[in-house]
Amino acid sequence: MTAEAGFPVEMVSGVPVVVVPEEIDITNADNLRAALSEAASHGQGRFVVDMTRTQFCDTAGLHALVAAHKRTRTGGGQLLLVMPGAGVLRIFEITGLDQVIPHVASLEEALARPPDAPAQPS
Amino acid sequence: MTAQVDPEPVEVRFRAIQSITDAALSGLDDRELLVALLDRVREILRADTAAVLLLDVSSGQLIATAAAGLEEEVRQGVHVPVGRGFAGRIAAERQPVILDHVDHTTVLNPILWARGIRSMAGVPMMAGNRVIGVMHVGSLTSRQFTEPDVELLQMAADRAAAAVISMNAQADRLAAAALQRSLVPTALPAVAGAELAARYIPGDGAVGGDWYDVFTLPSGELCVVMGDVAGSGLPAAVIMGRMRSALRAYALETRDPAEVLDRLDRKMQHFEPDAMATVLYAIIDPSLDRMRICLAGHFPPVIAIPGQPAELARVAPGLIIGVSPEARRHVTTVPIPPGALVCCYTDGLIERPDEPIDVGLTRLTRAVTAEPAEAACAAVMRALVGNQAARDDIALLMVRRQPQSPIIGSG
């Protein structure tokens, strides 16, 4: 099994985008971690994690995202989450992480956002 | 000596190695297995000593763990730094090394040259592409270990590595399970007018990081904790144990549940900066008529009041532990009428593949009714778990205020 199994990293308009599957839990959180590291190494400090399809993300998945967010922020970059209104956004509200990790509702919005736009929870 | 004059065909020697490890894998502890394997290696390669050194990752040292022939290596706790000496070079280069001249310039371990070892061969023990140790043989007479000798040694080392990996994993699982058992209260406290019931199910047979705790304060208040540490196995169980004790200590110092969780968060971020966990902490009045609750990234409890459909308690969300040192959480006061049931749980109870979390939460609120705590636990487990194996840990804790609470009379 490759580290990126189920977690393709695509370059869209020059920005690395990690496409997250329906569910992240303890069984595939390491794959997410690997994909986040890869995306962070490709972008100029900025990358997008597309969770449009994601319905469930447990503490192991949140842990991977928080670690990547902290690392990116320390390096002056930005991790931007894509979460439409339903689905996984609820988990981010419950954990309070919607107030910590910047997020937008669609991939188009994420790519349209200027690289130095201030991080603001939607 | 060359492979051609070898009296035993290579296949026979291979089978000899195979036979011992297959038979020995069951029933021996790892040290006994390694010694048995090394005895056979020594015999087959006609060597005078055979030894295994395992890598201690934290110190970067190879530590003599098992030996046949020169057992004092192990008894004296020989350590060899990776990159230095014979064994250290094998670990650093991840390559077999054959040595036909043994002295203090080529071998770091003085026991080997002081006892007159003349020739050596050693191979790395690998777990995937990670070095976990070195196996080597030595001869008191000058000889050239051959390529077939090294192949045999590598085969024995591969088998030893597989055994060490599986036995280490097994030891970690047992330790994590023992720790978990010691941390989750076996007997819930008896509190007049309240009923308590709980379940803990490890996911997929492995222990994760879920825990719950119930204790009373000197004030007579009843405290309820439910938590979920990110990760699994021994590392998560260790973090869980530290969080449980720290929370108990802060609970004695302040009666403000938000202050307890904020302090716990600061403590974790300082001492365990890589840890992350959700925690629910509720303090129930001695009269049982309300709880003051604070959430750190945890799901709100479900509350069932007699005669009403159960619902998620409306509790202010608070940031998960381990993210920001500035996090400040809020306390929500939730009334508990006579007969009401409070249901605390971890995400393992409500998660389903490819399903939004709200669907799981709805399933849970439908399954909870204001009935006696033990019956309510059984009903929720039946409705949400049924006969399926849990992938993640599941923790469930029910607190019910009895309909006629003796403390406050008829209410």
What's a quick, concise take on this entry?
Chain A has 122 residues and is of the alpha/beta class. Helices cover 35% and strands 20% of the residues of chain A. In chain A, strand 1 (9-12) and strand 2 (15-19) form a beta hairpin.
The CATH class label of the largest domain in chain B is Alpha Beta
Number of helices of chain B: 10
User: Biggest interface: chains and residue counts?
Assistant: A-B, 26 and 37 residues
Give the second-level CATH assignment, the architecture of the largest domain in chain B. Answer: 4-Layer Sandwich
What profile does the largest beta sheet of chain A have?
5 strands, mixed
Q: On the 0-100 scale, what is the average pLDDT of chain B?
A: 88
Describe this structure in words.
The complex is a heterodimer of chains A (122) and B (411). Chain A is an alpha/beta fold and 122 residues long. Chain A has one domain (9-112): Transcription Regulator spoIIAA. Chain A has four helices and seven strands, in the order βββαββαβαβα. In chain A, the strands form two sheets. In chain A, strands 1-2-4-6-7 form a five-stranded mixed beta sheet. In chain A, helix 1 (29-42) runs parallel beside helix 2 (59-74). The longest helix of chain A has 16 residues, at 59-74. The radius of gyration of chain A is 13 Å and the shape is globular. The relative contact order of chain A is 0.17. By secondary structure, chain B is an alpha+beta fold. Chain B folds into two domains: 10-175, GAF domain (Beta-Lactamase); 184-401, PPM-type phosphatase domain (Phosphatase 2c, domain 1), CATH 3.60.40. Chain B is built from ten helices and 16 strands. In chain B, the strands form three sheets. Chain B has a six-stranded antiparallel beta sheet with strand order 3-2-1-6-5-4, sandwiched between helices. In chain B, strand 12 (302-304) and strand 13 form a beta hairpin. The longest helix of chain B is centred in the middle third of the chain and has 37 residues, at 147-183. Chain B starts with 9 loop residues before the first helix and ends in a 10-residue tail after the last strand. Mean pLDDT of chain B is 88; it is low at 1-5.
